[in-house]
Amino acid sequence: MSAVFLGVRHHSPACARLVERTVAELRPAQVLIEGPAEMNGRLDELLLGHEMPVAVFSHYRDGQRAATSWAPLCDYSPEWVALWAGRAAGAEVRFIDLPAWHPAFAERTNRYADAEARYAEATERLCRQFAVDSSDALWDRLFEVEPDGGLAERLDAYFALVRGDAEADAGDRARETYMAAWVRAAVEAAGDRPVLVVTGGFHQPALRALTGSGARDRADGDGWERGADGWPVVPAPPDDAMAGSFLVPYSFRKLDAFAGYQSGMPSPGYYQQVWEGGPEAAADGLLRAVVERLRARKYPVSTADLIAARSLAEGLTALRGHPSPARIDVLDGLAGALITDDLDQPLPWTGRGTLTAGAHPAVVEMVAACGGDRIGRLHPDTPAPPLVHDVAARLTALGLDGGPEATYRLDLTDAADLERSRVLHRLRVLGIPGLERTTGPTHGVDPVFTERWESRPALGREAALVEAGAYGATLAEAAAVALTGRTRGGAAEADGPAGALFDAVLCGMGGFSEQLLGELSSCVRELQISGPLGEILATALGLWRHDRVFGMARGPLLAAVIGGATERLLWLLEGARGSSGVDFPRLRAVVAVRDAVLHAPELLSVTREVATGVARRISEDPQAPVDLRGASFGLARSLGRVPGSPGASGDPAEAVRAVARTGSDALGDWLAGLFALARDEVTGVVGDGDGPGGGAESLIDVLDGLVGALSDDEFLSGLPALRQAFAFFPPRERERIAARLLERRGVRGSSRSLLRTTADPLLIARARALEESVSRLLARYELEATP
After folding, report:
1. Which of 424, 512, 611, 652 could cross-link 480 (Cys pair, CB 3.0–4.6 Å)?
2. Residue pLDDT, tens place only, 629-675
3. In degrees rounded to 5, what are phi and psi of residue 9?
4. Are 391 and 62 in contact (CB under 8 A)?
5. How far is it, in rounded angstroms, from Cα 316 to Cα 324?
């Protein structure tokens, strides 16, 4: 006998019923299923008696690549029905797809996210032909609400049409040749009995072609080796890689297209009802669920509204020629009866994708009711990765298994509490729900020595623990690998390597600090943006200088990070070219360089003189950003005066006059950089005229004269940048500056009154400019008021 191919759509009740019927009628010797072949020796785990949905979670990690993926299954998944129905019929059941770690699945996190997007053109033509809005509505029209008679033939025709001559990519070609090897082996083993092959419909035409009578001679060279038992060998991961697969609980929310799922049917809660009771029962259930959800949220829904929704759904079913109500019939009926105001976006079931912000409340509840809230549960005998057992043992040993109402107050100066804190932080960085820190230190120099952790909803905790097992067998190892991953490549700039460093400290760096700091050192050498690099330097330097809790102060572990970051930052800053405005992360990076040169010179490969020379060159470079030139001037003053040009002589009054000649905007940006670095050095004791800021004339006096000489238009243009610059001064220093300005004008009064205006100063300045403009216009046309 030859193979019988069933091409299916993942998570389709109609396809699941077809599979069940076909197994019962065909009584095959072999049932081959699209699924991870590495699980063939563990299929009994899938049949332990779980509460669906569940998923096969697979992970892979080597020196170059890390990947995770899921193969989700629910009650009405055709693959799941093929598994238990085949077993019940006495057939040998096998998964026949490549392992999830294989490069054929590169960048794919969902095994069943087949090539539906690749045949979108064909489905769009069919949608136009059948006058429906989306591929999901088309599928319902053709398969879910139609009688079961002739379903297999309709599916064959549908998948042959939508794939057509579409060329599979390299990954799909590898998968299809591998699955074809399993089909040929099964046909040989079955003898005269049939073989049933259940795969995604996209693959079915290719598998038929690869295993047909004309293809067998060509198939001998497909490259897939057979084992001694006659079946294709399951590829093994490289020796230096870590890979594995485990069952995890899944949820309807993760299966829902409106929450971002990319494969198979949307609205899993609705189609669960279709599977259990048929389309009519599902339609009634959806009507009731939506009304109950809306009433629970105080949205007015009357009995008349419910009757109207039901009548509209029945009318749309008849009008569209559906033998049974389809999902869109019910949803459109509900929308027509319950939504009376205009909508500013299309109804979400007219397409695919996540529910967008601003959706109508009734629409939100319809989508939620369709999705359902079911969460799977694994049988207690399901094997779990070592991490699950290690976490349970650690929590019990440290008294952290207090239950859903537990609250923990930890003293970080106490060794036992510090260890508890480290365990909780390791769970946090792995994303394990259940406990959340509400208070505690937020950075390396935060003088907080206590933490408070409170219980939070723990939905998904079991699945999160299993998935975190991909990082390692113990909690410490898993946390280290997860943190190391945050310092690599693009993840470093997006996630914040400085945060990863401090998280590593909170988790306890002993035992894995060398690997993590090695990655951080590599990250430091590769980062192209000064802001994130400055955060790394500031965090590492703060811990090295001031840590009193975590054992990092003056230790050797951070030396390479501090030295490398300082050298790299000086190189990046000198190469910066310019844009207007103030780059605050870059200014904080310059501050970190200053602190490293002043307070940790023994860790650096660059001397104070070299750093000062770099700062001087940047401050004089007309192509450098204006704010960076001001910061570099301040850095040079902080590190020591350097003989040379007038700008390097350290006279801020002379330097600020030179910048002011280029415009009021540039003046504010330059001052922002200066004040970020050397506020104390350049202002001294404001008002005494003898501070280090300028000898007989203070910098504030110089600025007052420059600002006072601006025209109204120049002042209005430069005011935002000037306000931004003086925001670097704390309130008390601003009061002293205000007092000096009042004194210069011989005005008596409180300096606080000068700072506390009745409205935003920028608004006041603009209002004054507008009034003067109106006055000039009135005078021009001699329309001013008569005295």
Report:
1. 512
2. 999 999 998 887 544 444 444 677 788 888 888 887 788 889 899 99
3. -100, 135
4. no
5. 11
